[in-house]
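Lecture notes, unit on binding sites. The following record was shown on slide 14. It pairs a sequence with IPE.
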Amino acid sequence: AWSLTPLSLPPSRPPGAPQPVPAPVRPAAAPAFRRPPAHPSGERPPAIPAAHLPTHVAVIMDGNGRWAQQRGLPRHEGHRAGARAVREVVHGALEMGLRHLTLYTFSTENWSRDREEVDAILGLLRDEVADNHFRDLDVHMRWHGRAGRLPTDLADLLQLRERTTRGRTGLTLTMCIDYGGRDEITRTAAALARRARAGQLDPDRITDEDFARHLPHPDMPDVDLLWRTGNEQRTSNFLPWHSAYAELHFTPGLWPDTDRRDLWQAVTAYTGRQRRLGAESPNPLPL
Ligand code: IPE
Ligand code: IPE
Ligand code: MG
């Protein structure tokens, strides 16, 4: 690089000559983000006022293996097609103005799959994160899950993306990788126990709020809408704390066949729900 970069020295100043006045430092301009590419059909998101959008949508992206099986392909081809659907749905979330989208990408239980499939999933993930598809979109990327078991290069890449997109305020995209709800709760309980042992917390007075403050991502809002594709009606150890009052939405399609219009449909269905949160009267979301 040195040999390609000519080194230019400033001309020498005669003694006594006035100090050059440094050019004023201008604040860095705010980065200009690209708009997400439109859906090929030209369809636009439904016009839902921001106040009626769910703040946090979490997705269990299920059905990659069956999608491949139906086509006589190896399972990893299903995961590859699933990665395309992720990009598509992120574009749809941005178009719609969602604030938080959390994707169940690899669970603590998924380690029990064949070594070959696990390697294929982690390899694909590494490629996706390295390709940095959301580099010039207003997306803050985060990783939620156990540290220490993922390949170091993948963990480093995830942390790099998190650091370099930290200032972005559009969509917070959290990828749950080596994530398990019970693991999250157990680690939180351990953090509380440490505080109690240190005399900083009275075990008899621990509140919901104390617990929430000790979660690995204390700033993650409650899930408003939990959507699972792939025709299964279970939550498979996904965000049990945050989803305590989530509206559930199960769809039959397989994840690789999913596009942003399915997200828009899920959100539209959510706007028709009556959330009571334990109260006697519904809290309708008038449109
Ligand atoms: C979801 O698809 C992706 C991961 C769990 C990594 P699956 O691989 O579970 O697909 P099915 O459920 O076997 O079809
Ligand atoms: C949940 O799907 C995990 C992810 C989508 C990453 P699984 O396919 O692993 O869940 P089960 O085994 O059907 O409950
Ligand atoms: Mg599955």
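Take-home: The longest strand covers residues 171-179.
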